[in-house]
Amino acid sequence: MSPPLLKLGAVLSTMAMISNWMSQTLPSLVGLNTTRITTSDTLTQISPKEGWQVYSSAQDPDGRCICTVVAPEQNLCSRDAKSRQLRQLLEKVQNMSQSIEVLNLRTQRDFQYVLKMETQMKGLKAKFRQIEDDRKTLMTKHFQELKEKMDELLPLIPVLEQYKTDAKLITQFKEEIRNLSTVLTGIQEEIGAYDYEELHQRVVNLESRLRDCMKKLTCGKLMKITGPITVKISGTRFGAWMTDPLASEKNNRVWYMDSYTNNKIVREYKSMADFVSGAESRTYNLPFKWAGTNHVVYNGSLYFNKYQSNIIIKYSFDTGQVLAQRSLEYAGFHNVYPYTWGGFSDIDLMADEIGLWAVYATNQNAGNIVISQLNQDTLEVLKSWSTGYPKRSAGESFMICGTLYVTNSHLTGAKVYYSYSTKTSTYEYTDIPFHNQYFHISMLDYNARDRALYAWNNGHQVLFNVTLFHVIKTEDDT
């Protein structure tokens, strides 16, 4: 038995002896046994009092008090022998009580030690259990390693068997090669009729036929707008960005014009990727400030509205010079007839498959939209069409194949609401929704080369894809 358990045994043994002594000796000392003392007087049963139980009391002829047990009252006969015996007994009880208290302290201390040892034993038990589990895990791991090694060795068995069957295997290989050769021969017979030159010629003929088909397509009619695709986030809430619809396929320069007034700086980027990364290639300082955000780059030149005027400027990026400028007769300017968002957007310059256009409003047309086709070299008005759509009620507009498409708002819920065909001089109300993702459009222009709408949407440069409906021309079409 370990020392803590020996201590616990000694404690329990001591407590047993004390308990035995109290049950046998103490009752006889205090009169709690079955003995009764009788006197000349009648024996009287007294009710229990506090602390002790009194069985009987009486007086002898000499007047002495005889008690079988001492009650705690101080008025009982204090001078008789039983009283002295009781006091002695009380002293013994007090001494014994003190001894029991000391023993109790030792017992509590040893008990706490035992509890501590019990906790340690439980910890050891848990550790042994963990070691047992780890042993199983370790054995499992070793078993797994052995199994893996066995799995590695297992393929050696069929290898050994293969050495016995090499001749048969080679025969099988020969048969498979013979079958494959037959299949390849069949494929060669199927495609062997066409050599490379003939296939190339067929591709060229197909491309030619596609071009002829494209030439027979009439200019498209807008059917659907999808997107937008957010290209970049930059600049103020208002601005313009664009590419040249007449540029070659290798020329993908992007131009960027922030703000709608009080600015003359045009930034150029060599490609869309450079525009996204901010790798600016060149900066142009225009001779005049522009008004609005409705500029257009067309055939290498920038067309914009000169600030606080109805004058249109043609600026060459190659030479850095103004090539032409002309007043747009009767056109309102400086927020007289802007789009609904304002921003000096009175004159909107745009381009499509047909050419260069100006969209504006005049007093003569009661503030309704006027469409004018311009000569790209001289800026002379070639022809004009007067519509019945109020310019101030339009959110933005753009041209596709000679048809003007007008949005009903520049805010959330915008859609293409109205269109006017310059070919037929007729209009119609449409319902072509598009997602105004950033809630405020200040520029919306069509690019015929990209078949896309460029937009400046609340400081976001975005692109919309368009779906056009084409009709194939017949021999009778003029």
From TrEMBL:
A single GO cellular-component term on record: extracellular space
UniProt main location, coarse: secreted
Entry keywords, A to Z: Coiled coil, Disulfide bond, Glycoprotein, Secreted, Signal, Synapse
Disulfide bonds: C219-C401
One GO process term, biological-process aspect: signal transduction
Coiled coil location: 79-141, 170-216
Subcellular localization: Secreted; Synapse
Entry-linked SUPFAM superfamilies: YVTN repeat-like/Quinoprotein amine dehydrogenase
Pfam families in UniProt: Noelin-1 (PF12308), OLF (PF02191)
Olfactomedin-like domain span: 218-470
Domain of life the protein comes from: Eukaryota
PANTHER family cross-referenced by the UniProt entry: NOELIN-3, OLFACTOMEDIN-RELATED
Name the UniProt record assigns to this protein: NOE3 protein
